[in-house]
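pipeline/complex-builder :: batch 7 item 3
reading input block
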Amino acid sequence: MAQIWPIGGGKGGSGKSFLTSSLGRLSAGMGKRTLVIDLDLGAANLHTLVGVPSPPKGFSDFIRKRIVRLEDTVVETPFENLFLISGAKDNFDIANLSYEQKIKTLRAITKLDYDPILLDLGAGTSFNTLDFFLISQHGIFITTPEPTSIENVYRLIRSIYFRQIRYCFTAGDFKALEEAVQEQFGDGAFNKPECMIKVIAQAYPEKYKQLQDEFNAFRFKLIINQVRKHDNAALGMQMSRMIEKHLGLNIEFAGNVAYDDHVHDAICQQVSFLDRYPCTKTASDLHAVGKQVVQNAGQQLMFQYM
Ligand SMILES: Nc1ncnc2c1ncn2[C@@H]1O[C@H](COP(=O)(O)OP(=O)(O)O)[C@@H](O)[C@H]1O
Ligand SMILES: [Mg+2]
């Protein structure tokens, strides 16, 4: 079964697309038939980063039913083994995909004959974004060291945590759970995962066990991008520990990627950063992070609607 790596981050500009294209490029360079999918439909630009300035077709053709099979929207890139489903030409947000379109897309992605498949998810915490992130256990979170970016990625992680809890319950049971949390811990407490999980442990022991198993099965990773010399190099480890402490979620810190102005230069020249500037610290960081991510052995799909 293909590995699927959804790549998310709370904030635009943190480097999700740059990292998707770089990890895709590295994976393809290892001889893996790699597919990158641009699901940041409102701000699609992955095509430019993988050297396809004007993709002839893309994801919108599948959504608009101009192309029946998702695999037929795939285009080649100039790089051997690297393929793209472009998000260009779409003028809607992923948040606006209907339930049916989302299910159809999630199903179609799991059936694509590429391995790995990388999803560039774009910013935000819409239900659709969360559901695409939860398509596999191998999601990757990206943030920069800036507090605003950290805040947003933390919000995304909490939203994913809540979404996973929500999947476990019927609508009626979830409502009852929210009320029980409110009653025990006061107004607004149903927003606090530590309160919610306590009530689940008391009132729904079987669901609690199921959730613990699901959370333990996650192999999420965290990458800190655009790290400058004076930034706190230990931030990733600290975030990972904090998330473990508050949510009981194990998110492995996969490494820092240094800030380098050459990234801007490569994007402006429309060339691959890794190929044009292979001897930079940023390139060696990308290789190290890529190795961490690729090392993921086997996985089960998470997709809840199969
Ligand atoms: N490691 C880095 N060093 C320097 N600049 C970077 C780095 N990563 C990303 N950038 C810059 O940040 C911009 C936004 O990156 P992008 O991948 O498009 O973000 P996102 O997809 O998260 O919105 C890029 O155009 C690039 O100029
Ligand atoms: Mg992007």
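note: The pocket of adenosine-5'-diphosphate (ligand 1) is lined by residues 9, 12-18, 225-226, 257, 259-260, 263-264, 267, 282 (CB under 6 Å).
queue -> next item
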